[in-house]
Amino acid sequence: MIRAKKSLGQNFLTDKNILEKIVNIVPIEGKTVLEVGPGSGNLTSLILNKNPKKFIVIEKDNDLVKYLDKIFNNQIKIINEDILKIDEKILSKDKITVFGNLPYNISTEILSKWIINLKNNFWFDHLILMFQKEVAERILAKYDTSEYGRLSVLANWKLNIKKISDVKPEAFSPKPKIDSTILYFSPKKNYHKLKDPRNLEKVTRVFFNHRRKMLKKPFNQIFNGNKIVLNKLKLDLNLRPQNLNIDMYYELASEYEKLIC
Question: Is residue 82 domain-shared with residue 125, that is, in the same domain?
């Protein structure tokens, strides 16, 4: 019998209605599909029933890899690796549709990695991901709210995001102590161009590390009190990081790139 490992943040999704909802969010027949953290294979089976052209799963747990290999018998390509160590761009020449019941303890790290590693081309066409509800609220948050932060700015930079539904603990085995949320992401056609996404990551990290402070401290840390940038962006340094809308952070990242080039 397969048991979820707390050390890996495993909670297996077992609710058939939720599983059906997830697999029907986008058409996947004839597509290349990636499932991150397939667990005991409940969603994996439904994805296979939709006849994808190519189906890859990434699973870190050695015991689950052996189990999945036995159950699916070469119907899927299993990569026994940590998702954080994989370069997804080399998995397929085709755009990939990604499903993931992400481990709660590294879900934000996974999403941030995918966003920061995006250059000019998207390696995926759809992301259907499960997060802890609190994390999903941070991803969807608007400025001037307490949930708004780095994750809101990063996630909304190149991606359209739609909430599909909340999921109660009873849908999992073992039951987590919190609610979860399914989010759907798709690439934006138009977005603020930056030379290096890591510059946006740095700007948001510095600013939101001082989220309770006024903007003067993080602005000086990044821009060393540059009056030209300050006047150009018409920044009020008496505001706090959560008071700046998403577009302002993209402008700040652009100005930072000009200074370091």
Answer: yes
Strand partners, 124: 96
Listed residue (152, 139, 136, 132) closest to 207, CA to CA: 152
> Quick one: pLDDT at residue 10?
61
Q: Please give the residue range of the domain that contains residue 163.
A: 6-187
- The tokens for 38 are 């397939």
What is the SS3 assignment for 212?
Answer: coil
Average pLDDT, the chain: 93
170 DSSP 8-state letter: G
Which residue, 140, 159, 187, sits at the end of a domain?
Answer: 187
Distance between CA 55 and CA 126 in Å, rounded?
A: 15
Sign, Cα dihedral of 77, 180, 113, 189: positive
Number of domains within the chain? 2
Question: For position 104, what pLDDT does the model report?
Answer: 84
Q: How far is CA 240 from CA 7, 29, 55, 146, 168, in A?
A: 37, 47, 45, 11, 34
Give this prediction's pTM: 0.93
Which ranges of the chain have pLDDT less than 50? Answer: 7-8
Residue 180 has phi, psi (to 5 degrees) of: -120, 170
What's the pLDDT score for residue 216? 95
Give yes or no: residues 175 and 64 share one domain: yes
Instruction: Identify the pLDDT of residue 218.
Output: 96
Residue 11: CATH number of its domain:
3.40.50.150
Query: Which of these three, 158, 187, 216, is where a domain ends?
Result: 187
137 and 75 in one domain? yes
The pLDDT of residue 210 is 84
